[in-house]
Amino acid sequence: MMNQIGREIDYVAKLQNIILHNRRQARKKNLAQEPFNTPPEGNVPMNELGSVAGQGTAASTPILLSFTVPDGWDGLIRWLIIQYTGTNFVNNSGNLIWALRVNGLYIKGYHNLRSQFSGTSNGLEIDPGIQIKSGNLVEIIVTVDPAFVPEGGSELIAGVSGYLYPNGVARTN
């Protein structure tokens, strides 16, 4: 009789541990996805744009956009805009290769972009988004092939769009 009660108590304890473990995992999963679900309370739009003149950039790697995430704020990059305004570029040719990096590290999947994504309707939507943290240096660079000569008067343009939110905001969604 005592053995049977002991086994039942062990069984109940194991079930409680499983339930507790599952709740912790669900909580971690929700926290990991928090900024991707909906913008947190107190968010502000983030729209950063930069450019350099195309002429004279052959065989170089200019930084088109560079900004630091403000102290006290985190954010999410949702759109990427990269464009060459000249007429002598062919998408996917390799003449221009754009890359997004944060703190000098290239972002996987966004480090070898060979096509243009321009404007709000044709920008590259990043789903679920790239999380950025307070103090991060965000940059977009372009590598210009030595054989490619950008036209005079052309521009190389890059931008990111998304939102910033106060870091440490309690999330409830």
Describe the protein in words.
With 173 residues, the protein is an alpha+beta fold. It is 23% helix and 38% strand. It has two helices and eight strands, in the order H-E-E-E-E-E-H-E-E-E. Strand 4 and strand 5 (105-106) form a beta hairpin. The longest helix is centred in the N-terminal third of the chain and has 36 residues, at 2-37. The model has no long low-confidence stretch (mean pLDDT 84).
Features:
single chain, 173 residues, alpha+beta, Jelly Rolls, 2 domains, 4-stranded antiparallel beta sheet, 8 strands, 38% strand
Distance between the termini: 48 Å
Strand and helix order: HEEEEEHEEE
Number of helices: 2
**Biggest sheet overview:** 4 strands, antiparallel
Strand content: 35-45%
| Fraction of residues in helix | 10-25%
* Reported CATH architecture of the largest domain: Sandwich
| Rounded mean pLDDT score | 84
General shape: elongated
CATH class of the largest domain: Mainly Beta
Taken together, the total number of domains comes to: 2
Per the CATH scheme, the topology name of the largest domain is: Jelly Rolls
